[in-house]
Specification:
319 residues, alpha+beta, Sulfite Oxidase, Chain A, domain 2, 7-stranded mixed sheet, 5-stranded mixed sheet, 9 helices, disordered N terminus, binds ligand MTE, binds molybdenum atom
């Protein structure tokens, strides 16, 4: 484990947007919980266990240009013990401690909405439809820390082509599992469960948008969003919904969790932009987990090829 201080910026949940929270009162209990557990963390919990030994994923294509970055990978230990997955607790090490209770087999996924072939399909069957490849991506959390992660997955656009969205489909919505039996964090109202994220259809069809089913050559650990999660490398990490149980094609823009809870702080687009500060901190630099010091944050997290998707829109409005 790295010895550098890990939390220099308040996590999304610890402050949990007092203003908005108090405004509707609904999540006041959640605020207390988040602050309380943050204090527990300061006092000190046992270190999280290493991720369990997971089966290797055979037969994937190795990462090739343009899907690699010439930067050191974040260690497997850090990738799997420093996580945001509030369904398992709001502290960074809670998912590694708690996610062993998630049962990922069987894992039915509902595909519905504006689509020619609505269906329910098991995650394993679905993954088997596609060629799995390795993609080494930067991951930039809105809290101003970052990683470099070797994912295994398939392009979201391949899945979209297979299920044939109708002409009315303008967006794709992703819903995570919210089962209090398996996910202790869901027993607390830190967020309005289930966790929902979404993309505009053209963003979802961009070749960079990935459905990940593994990392570091192995099956995805539960804390990383097993059995299947979204990865959109030019956007802040919260867009990457974990442990997805529903993929819905919609005409209207999905009501995405963080944008609903704190609209002044988190938008629908959430494109990484060093020029637009978060109301409570700068986004100009980031702390790469495992490194000392800070790095400059790159526009679109270094994936400038997506700029075409936003032609004619002021990038500062796409937070
Ligand atoms: N269901 C769900 N998905 C989620 C989250 C969450 O709390 N619940 N956290 C998001 C945030 S804020 C980040 S930064 C990434 C973290 O992914 P990682 O833990 O694999 O690095 O997951 C995102 N997906
Ligand atoms: Mo995040």
């Amino acid at each position: 484990m790295g010895t550098a201080p890990r939390d220099q910026v308040t996590p999304e949940g610890v402050y949990l947007h007092r203003r908005e929270l108090l405004k509707n009162g609904l999540y006041a209990a959640g605020t207390a919980l988040a602050v309380g557990s943050g204090m527990t963390w300061l006092v000190g919990k046992a270190p999280p266990p290493d991720a369990p030994e997971l089966p290797a994923l055979a037969g994937y294509q190795a990462a090739a240009a343009p899907y690699t970055v010439a930067e050191a990978l974040t260690s497997y230990h850090d990738v799997t013990t420093y996580n945001n997955f509030y369904e398992f607790g709001v502290d960074k090490e809670d998912p590694a401690r708690n996610a062993h209770t998630l049962r990922t087999k069987p894992w039915p996924i509902q595909i519905d909405g504006e689509v020619a072939k609505p269906q329910a399909v098991d995650a394993e069957t679905l993954a088997g439809w596609f060629t799995v490849e390795e993609r080494i991506y930067r991951m930039r959390c809105v809290e101003a820390w970052s990683m470099v992660i070797p994912w295994l997955g398939f392009p979201l656009r391949d899945l979209i082509a297979r299920v044939e969205p109708t002409a009315k489909a303008k967006y794709v919505e992703f819903t995570s599992l919210a089962d209090p039996e398996q996910m202790p964090g869901v027993r607390h109202r830190v967020l309005p469960w289930p966790y929902v994220e979404g993309l505009r259809m053209d963003e979802a069809q961009h070749p960079l948008s990935l459905i990940a089913v593994g990392l570091y050559g192995k099956v995805l650990p539960n804390q990383s969003g097993a059995p299947l999660r979204l990865v959109v490398p030019w956007k802040y990490g919260f867009k990457g919904a974990k442990s997805i149980v529903r993929i819905r094609f919609t005409e209207a823009q999905p009501k995405t969790t963080w944008a609903v809870v704190a609209p002044s702080e988190y938008g629908f687009y959430a494109n990484v932009n060093p020029a637009v500060s978060h109301p409570r901190w700068s986004q100009a630099t980031e702390r790469r987990i495992g490194e000392l010091g800070r790095r400059p944050t790159l526009p679109f997290n270094g994936y400038g090829e997506v700029a075409d998707l936003y032609k004619g829109i002021d990038p500062r409005t796409l937070y």
